[in-house]
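Subject: Protein record for review, amino acid sequence with backbone structure tokens
Why sent: The fold of this protein is of interest and is recorded here as tokens.
Enclosed: The protein record, placed directly beneath this head.
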Amino acid sequence: MPQRPRHDDLHELHDLLAASQGWVATRVARYAVAQGFAQASPLAGSWHEAVAEVCAAILATIREHDGQAPPLGPPGAAPPGPLEALAARQARARRRRGARLDMYLGLLKILRRSLLDLLAERPAPLDDPRAAPVFVNRCLDAFEVALCARWTAPDQDTALDELRAGNRELSRERDLYMGALEALPDPLALVDAQGRLRHMNLAAAVRLGVPLLPGGLYSETAEPGLLAPGDHCPRTRDGLRGLPLATLLPWIEAPLAAFLAGERSLRRLDIQAGDASGPRTIRLTLARMPGVAGSLGDTVVQMADVTDQAATLCAPESGKPRRQDDLLRLVMDHTPALVAYLDRDLRYRFANAHHAEVFHLTPADIVGRPLGELFGEQAAARMRPHCEQALAGTPRHFELPFTSPRGTTRHFDAACIPHRTGNEVAGLVLLLQDATPRKRAEQEQQRFFDVSLDMLCVTGLDGRFRKVNDAWRRILGWERGELLGLPWAAFVHPDDADAVRRAFGQLARGHSVMGVESRFRRKDGAFRWVNWNALPLLDEGQAYAVVHDTTRRREMEDVLRQLATRDSLTGACNRRQFLELAAREVDRAGRYVRPVSLLMLDIDRFKRINDTHGHPAGDEVLRALVACAGRSLRRTDVLGRVGGEEFAVLLPETEAPDALRIAERIRADVEGLAVPYEGKELRLTVSIGHAQTRGGRSLEELLKLADDALYEAKRTGRNRVVAAPAENDPAPPPPDAP
């Protein structure tokens, strides 16, 4: 049997795993593709991160246990370590997103195989090379037990609510991306590796003359028979889906086939194509969509009509080049902003056509007017200092609120750009972009921000606070000035720091984080549990977060968990919880051919205590027995109350001689126990029955054998320990057995 690794051995194993996480992730991806996981799971894109988290937890376990593998006791018997904590987070997050437990356990099986490959192919210089695989197996066993326990922990209603929430989130994301696709002004289609149509947006349907509703090829509820009789396309939605795109657009056949047969991920080219309106210039963009595990998926086909653009920039008109000032006027008049040129006296010398929408004057009516006459003295007073600095040679940018002559209030993003001629500034270009929708959205956002009961904040991608609402002061006691500029991590409980660091790492990579549970320090030094979601905006370099105080809920969950699993009188496991934990341990003993022992305890002549001193005295005796027996047990052992005065003790990884020594110690301690009650000292003894298995007995058989041994101890004089007949050791499984 391999010895447990020494501290130096663990140091070598720690360094090997820390330096080889990329190797392990690559091996996991290879196995996942080979076994079909990559194609079967929509969550495979997050597997690399899951592998990194498990490896990090194993490294933390190595540092924490100092040469000893994590115990194989039932969940909840020992304080949670890094593996158990990670299992709890993973189970909650994956279950909420609708992931399947069997798919995740399949990934763990692949990870176990990859880690064992690592130890075989790149072994660390350990004194005993067998010890490292045993340690890794134990770690993954502990993680798997904790994961299964937490995954299956919620009741049916909770699991159903989480599934519904996950489905709603997926539906919202689907609608978001489908809405964005349908809103694109250029025709766009998705084709598979054979060039067959998977989807087209509304612009493509209009371009092709296919009367589809938005999302018609995607939605299962779209009305069939959308094509007119005589069309060259099939009449049904199902007929369009899977149809070669070249059937609808013959001119695309050659470039699309060449692109699909090649290895390029992006190609753009201009193609001359014709339709009912005549010859057109189409700018064709072909781009591959990356699939799971690095494979290439569908191809995006974008078809932008650039006929007018090509004609404006390149084509002659009546054999003569277009005049430059006419082209400039055309551009200015079609710019959705106020573009004007002012001389040094701040009089208009040019105004584009967009001025008519704001001032209800033609550009010809505006030319020659001074700035104050057009905007009014109040707005002109705001603008003049910026205009004067521009005339001095310094460009200026500012915001301008403005009320039009008809009483409409607008907000402009304004720019004054100096026009230099040699060493002088002859005038300035005044550019006013209408920012009214943005300004109103900001004001509405600020109102929601201020009245929200939850804590809202904006942070940089480095985690530093940039903006917080008043709820932070109300709930946690921090004023705005005490948070702004400081990192989120400075207020997090040390045990939650790694989880928060990983969450902000995801945000920095552009991934949203949902349902992160961590403890946040109040101003008075106490910690509160918070649950937060965050959405990153990489182009703004910041993230938006909603933070909800969940301390009260967690406290209630702890109380309910105690009520559901503990005996209210003695604090021991109740019968249901004990049998669940015992069943898992007996099943594990059968899987790995490991010993497990069971003790049945019964107080001798307990009825006499109740009849003589009353039931309150009996309750004191039961509590004293549990406290006394608990002092003789290990952290991995489980004590449960299975009857009125009958108790059971589960001893994982315990051979019969060790279990009998523990039982005898409990018996002797109870015999010497004096329970004070109303000025008296109550004495008691216990009879104990023992049974043991290495996987050949079921839990029911083990309970019956221990119970029979208990009553044999009662029959032969009480205050004794009696062992049931030993079990024949089963033969170990063959090396290649699953």
Q: What stands out?
A: Residues 453 and 471 are 6 Å apart (CA to CA). Residues 156-183 form the longest helix (28 residues).
